[in-house]
Amino acid sequence: MPDSLLNVNIVTGPVIIAFFAVSAAALIYLLARRPTPRWIVTAAIGLLGGAVIGLATLLVTVGLLNLFGSPLSHEANAWIIAAFAAIGLAIVNLWRSRWWRKLIAVVGILLFGITATLGVNAAYGLNPTLGSFLHINTSQPIDPGKPPATPPPANAGPLWETWTPPADMPAAGKTGTVDIPATASGFSARAAELYLPPAAQVDNAPALPFVLMMMGQPGDPDAQYIAAILDKYAAANKGLAPIALIVDQLGDPANDPLCLDSSRGNVETYVMTDAVGWAKANLNILPDRTEWTVAGYSNGGECSAYFGSKYPDVWGNILDISGDAYAGAEDSDQVLKEIFGGDQAAYDAVKPVNILAAGSYPDTTAIFTVGADDGTFQPDAKAVSDAAAAAGMNTTYYEVPGGDHGVSALNGGLDKGFELLYPRLGLSQPAS
Predict the structure, then answer these.
(1) Which residue has the higher pLDDT, 194 or 153?
(2) Mean pLDDT of 411-424
(3) Are 206 and 163 in contact (CB under 8 A)?
(4) CA dihedral in degrees (332, 336, 340, 345; nearest 10)?
(5) Residues 182-204 pLDDT 10s
(6) Distance between CA atoms of 98 and 8, rounded to whole angstroms?
(7) DSSP secondary-structure letter at 403?
(8) Which residues contact 225 (CB under 8 A, 6 or more apart)?
(9) Which of 216, 278, 324, 429 could form a disulfide with 329 if both were Cys (CB 3.0 to 4.6 A apart)?
(10) What is the pLDDT of residues 245-303, one digit of tens each?
């Protein structure tokens, strides 16, 4: 499939508008029959029956079986119920109708399903293109450069104070894919993505802070969201931003290896040995733990809390955006049985709240964000935030106004996180 097609926007713009318009036209046509009592009753049965089946499907798949790991948004639920209702109307049009109405009804069934899928995807906003929706990465490889052979002398002061950007510095950062060999872990990770801010793209670039980030599940290593936020902060701070490496903690969007070393894959070794080692060898980053941040969204947020609490000698900062309280929280009984062989104590030992309770964190900054409208993940974020504060971390808990569990929470969490981290990382002047 050509990149031009994979890069088509399916969240805003002509494609999704066209599907909405054609679906609306098909729905109107399928309703528009001579309004006899028989047809009015038949149409009502199709619409209401379809809606009831759609609601029942949601109650079973989301409520009973928890197939998606969390409740769907109200907008997503509405799209699914509406699609079932429209399909119900199309089905009743297959009887006592001319061949062309039957044809439109059959096409309408497919059309309503696709349109609802686009609507649900747009409600979350995390897969803006056809490629991202299909988990096909169209990003091009990027040259990360090399750190200087001889480490530069320690900065005389924070970068916001000592760095003078050259006249030819680019206005924005750039992103692309990089391959991280899974030498120690053997984990089958997909290509990572790298963000290089404007200040990293010039001759004699300064060493910069480092962010390792992980996205949600299902999801992909996607730099576009953190890149957009960091570009905004870089524009206001002389081109300065962290170098961000977005790694794959899943291996496959349908899998959740729990960010542990287990029968599902050695993710912990991949992140903490392979990815961290690659970053040290290939990126011009500052070495001090206070300049290193582990960040994540949703599944990746849980991972960031786990790695940040377990490895405080590596990570001086944690940014957990809408994360679960612990690995496999949405299916803990199965995880306990499959991964830990029923050993509850072993499972409890990898939960961040318990790691935090046993640890010491004299100089760690931890930021926990969650959508203000995300009632499902708020208790998790608050519980881990409270545990981090009790463990001695400099902790912030923040609810993104109007945020759900989709792109609004991700963008809002990244924005608040780097607002707080920039002074800590020496990239902006601390408030007086």
Answers:
(1) 194
(2) 98
(3) yes
(4) 90
(5) 999 999 999 999 999 999 999 98
(6) 37
(7) -
(8) 297, 407, 410, 411, 414
(9) 324
(10) 999 999 998 889 999 999 999 999 999 999 999 999 999 999 999 999 999 999 999 99
Write down the residue that tokens 């957009």 correspond to: 228
Report whether the peptide linkage leading into residue 165 is cis, meaning its omega lies within 30 degrees of zero.
no
Give yes or no for a contact between 213 and 194, defined as CB atoms under 8 angstroms apart.
no
From residue 197, alpha-carbon distances to 15, 51, 211, 226, 237 in Å are: 32, 49, 12, 11, 11
| Structural tokens at position 209 | 């802070």
Tell me the Ramachandran region of residue 364: left when phi exceeds 0, alpha when psi lies from -120 to 50, beta otherwise: beta
Distance CA 36, CA 137 (A): 53
Per this entry, what is the length of the chain? Answer: 432
Q: Which of these, 237, 170, 171, lies nearest to 209 by C-alpha position? A: 237
Q: What are phi and psi of 120, to 5 degrees?
A: -65, -45
265 Rama sector, left if φ>0, alpha if ψ -120 to 50, beta otherwise: left
CA distance 183 to 191: 14
In the chain, what are the domains?
3-124 (no CATH), 141-424 (3.40.50.1820)
Encoded tokens for 316: 């001086």
SS3 category, 195:
strand
Write out the two tokens for 45.
Answer: 């049965």
Per-residue tokens: 192: 């990572």
* Residues 373-388, mean pLDDT to the nearest whole number: 95
Burial string for 301-317 (b: 16+ CB within 10 Å, else e) reads bbbbbbbbbbbbeebbb
The CA distance from 161 to 428, in Å, is 8
When computed from its CA atoms, the radius of gyration of the chain, rounded to whole angstroms, is 25
- Note whether 160 and 427 are within 8 A (CB): yes
